[in-house]
Structure formats: C-alpha cells, structure tokens
Specification:
The protein contains 15 helices and 13 strands. The chain is an alpha+beta fold. The strands form four sheets. It has a six-stranded antiparallel beta sheet, with helices on both faces. It has a three-stranded antiparallel beta sheet with strand order 2-3-5. The chain has a two-stranded antiparallel ribbon with strand order 1-4. The two termini are 34 Å apart.
C-alpha cells in the first residue's frame, strides 16, 4: 500500500485532469463520481495509478487494460455478430506490470461488495475468486499455443454455467443478452434522432447531447473532412470499402461514462444509399494515466488505444480506428479513436449483485483478464511467478481490502471538497 504520508492528494489528481476537459461538463463528472465509493473508484484510475506506482512491482510486462474494474467487462458483438464477453474499455491501455490490472480488478470487487452491503466473508470470497480465476486461467494459457490463446474467447453460451441453479441470475443474464442483441444503429436511430425540416438529425438533450453548430465556416469544414479521412485511412482496406458506402448525415457531442466525462466525445450518424443507418462514436484519447510511471507511449494517444485494444481484446470492432484534429475550434491538437456506438453492447449490473453472483462474476472477469494478458505477455513466466498455491490470491486480497478502505476515505475527501466548494459537482443526470 502507498505511504499515506507521501501520497498525493487524490482530489488534486482529479482536478488536474479537469484542466484539459470541457469545463461545462466537468461538474457532471464529479457528480457521477460522488454517488458512491464504487462510482468514485470507476472514475479515479489516475489516483490508483499513482498509488500502484509507489508499490513494489514485477518485471513481468503485458499490455495492460489500465482500468480493469468490474464494470469495464461486458458483452459486445464480434465481427461475426456473435456475442462475446470481454474487456470493453481501453482508454488507459499501456504496457506495464501484469499485477496492476489484477490489483485494480480485485479492489473493484472489494469496493463493489461493500457498496452492496455484503458481509466481509462474502466480499473476501469474491475478491479471492477474481484472483484465483486469473491465476488458473493464466496457467491454462501457459499450456496452450499462441494461436489457441489468440482465438480463445468467451461466448454468451459459455456464461450459462455461471447462473446454473440460480433462477434470478439466469433471468438477469437473459435480460442483458436480449438488450445487447437489440442495441444496434437502428435502435440508436429511433432513440436519438428525429426528422426536422425534412432531414434526419440527432435530437439535442443538453448537457448530455449537444448539437454541433451548423454555421461552420468553410475552413473548419475542410479540417473536419481531413480529420475523418485520416480515420478512414487507419482501417483495413475491406473495412474502408464498407464505410465508403455511407455518408455523414449529422454529428453531436455526447456525454459518456464516469471518469471520461469532460473529454471530447462525439457521435456521428451516417446513412447508406438505401437509408441504412450507422452510428460511429469518436472519443478523445489522452496520455494513459499509467504513462507517468512507466515509459511514454510510442504511439499518438488515439493510435495507442486502438493498438492496445487490438492486442488485448478477443475480437475488436470492425470500424476501430484513430485520427487527430488540428485546430478545430481550438489551438490544440486533439486525438481520437473511433468505434461503433452501439454494436450489441451490454453490461452487467454490478450494483445489484449478491455474494454468490459477485463471486462467480469476479472469477469470470479474472479469467478473461488473464486471457487478455496472455495475448501480449509471457503466460508461462507469469504462471511460474504465481505458483500452484493460493499465496498470490491472499496477498492481492489483502491489498484489495486495504485499498477499499482507502477508496472510501478518498470518496469522503471528494464529498468534502464538493461541500466546501473546492470541487463543483452537478446533480446526477443519467
């Protein structure tokens, strides 16, 4: 654990991130983080990165997710339109010691269990299940060939044993999968757009959805066009061919997530010649919160996210790419990555989990994280380091419980900063 006497003020870390964000949205970020210790934890990857850097580390490097908490796992469509369960957020991806991801996952289990008012025994079981799931899966990966590891993925039907004998859990999984299956561009079109003045537009819902000013000067239009062309050039040729059949119809700013609020995130509606909709999201990428404590990335931020995602994730979005914008409404260059906005995406409601379901879910997330690490790291070396026993499980569990204490204290400090006026927080808006 970090030394509390030398540890940097967590509120200071968070407010320093605010400086480069859209200032009218920053209070929404702090409002969402203030809801509970778990929502605070979700938004405070930078705080934990500083804490982890102050602890002893291994030299066993992998491509880290960088933000491997429980809510950053979920369902999405693979290129073959089959639902898979995997990590689904890579804003902070960066090479680093494998245990940083494991510790962030384990601590998120402890914080979530406390928020759900579970007993200390149930929380400990869930935390150790996450770590054991990782340890056992990394051992399995070490015994497989590189291609087998590369193709190893967890599909929806493989999640069914997790809810065996639990009717409530089975119903919840069925609901999540149905919702994910229905989340596509057609549904987004019906939910987010309307016909105004004879054309299809994204409906404003400030401050969560804000339309782009239509009175854009020709020079800016040209810069935006160049920005989009840069993105298209990062796609494989076959994906470019598909995308070229669509034309841009409308664009708007959209607030997403918790910790990401305030970064620039836009959605763009495209339509094919026969009116088929396609929604893309392009999200601002900055330096990973891990970079100050490791080595600088060799890639620009948007490319870093895409390369990291391709290394770690089982199957990525077919329209995953990156670009940068020069001087669009700013003197600063901003970096972005692109993906489909809705493509079968579904998430599990961690806040409603009892002890048994949290334990099973945590173990699954631990296994998935191990598979992700094995794609870029040396699974045999990691497995050898972890050993056959549960020593690592107990050590990480001890860290997780201690860090949950620290998170609760940080959340209280954040609330105090809001109450004193040091931090401006808006009422929570879904």
């Amino acid at each position: 654990m970090p030394d509390p006497t030398t540890r940097r003020d967590p509120v200071e870390i968070l407010t320093s991130q605010d400086e480069t964000r859209l200032q009218h949205l920053v209070p929404i970020r702090h409002g969402r983080m203030s809801v509970s210790p778990f929502t605070f934890y979700r938004g405070s990857a930078a705080v934990q990165a500083a804490d982890l850097a102050a602890t002893p580390t291994t030299d066993l490097t992998v491509q880290l997710c960088g933000d491997a908490h429980l809510s950053n796992f979920g369902l999405f469509n693979g290129p073959d339109r089959r639902l898979v369960f995997d990590l689904n957020d890579f804003d902070e991806t960066h090479p680093g010691p494998f245990e940083w991801d494991v510790k962030r996952l384990a601590a998120s289990v402890a914080v979530a269990g406390r928020d759900n008012e579970l007993s200390a025994k149930k929380i400990d079981r869930a935390v150790r299940a996450a770590v054991a799931g990782y340890r056992e899966a990394i051992l399995s990966c070490s015994q497989k060939g590189p291609l087998d590891v590369h193709y190893w993925r967890l599909e929806l039907d493989q999640l069914q044993p997790l809810v065996e004998g639990d009717k409530k859990a089975r119903k919840r999984l069925d609901k999540v999968s149905r919702k994910a299956t229905s989340k596509d561009s057609v549904r987004a079109l019906n939910k987010l757009t309307d016909i105004v003045g004879g054309r299809r537009v994204i409906v404003a819902d400030p401050p969560l959805i804000e339309r782009i000013d239509e009175n854009i000067d020709p020079d800016e239009v040209a810069r935006i066009s160049t920005f989009f062309e840069r993105y298209v050039s990062t796609l494989p040729r076959d994906r470019r061919q598909v995308l070229q059949r669509y034309g841009v119809v409308d664009i708007a700013h959209k607030v997403v997530g918790v910790g990401s609020v305030g970064t620039r995130c836009l959605i763009v509606l495209l339509e094919s010649g026969d009116g088929e909709p396609l929604f893309l999201q392009f999200k601002e990428a900055t330096a990973s919160v891990l970079e100050p404590y490791t080595a600088p990335s060799e890639f620009e931020p948007g490319e870093r996210v895409v390369i990291g995602q391709r290394l770690v994730q089982t199957m990525g979005d077919i329209f995953l790419g990156w670009s940068h914008a020069d001087g669009i409404r700013s003197d600063t260059t901003h970096y972005f990555y692109f993906r489909q906005m809705w493509d079968g995406k579904g998430s599990v409601d961690v806040e409603s989990m009892g002890g048994r379901r949290l334990q099973r879910y945590a173990a699954t997330c631990g296994s998935v994280l191990a598979i992700a690490h094995a794609r870029s790291g040396d699974a045999a070396m990691i497995a050898g380091y972890l050993g056959d026993g549960d020593t690592f499980d107990h050590a990480v569990a001890q860290f997780a419980h201690a860090y949950a204490d620290l998170t609760e204290a940080d959340h209280a400090a954040h609330l105090a900063a809001i109450a004193s006026g040091r931090v401006d927080a808006a009422a929570v808006i879904d």
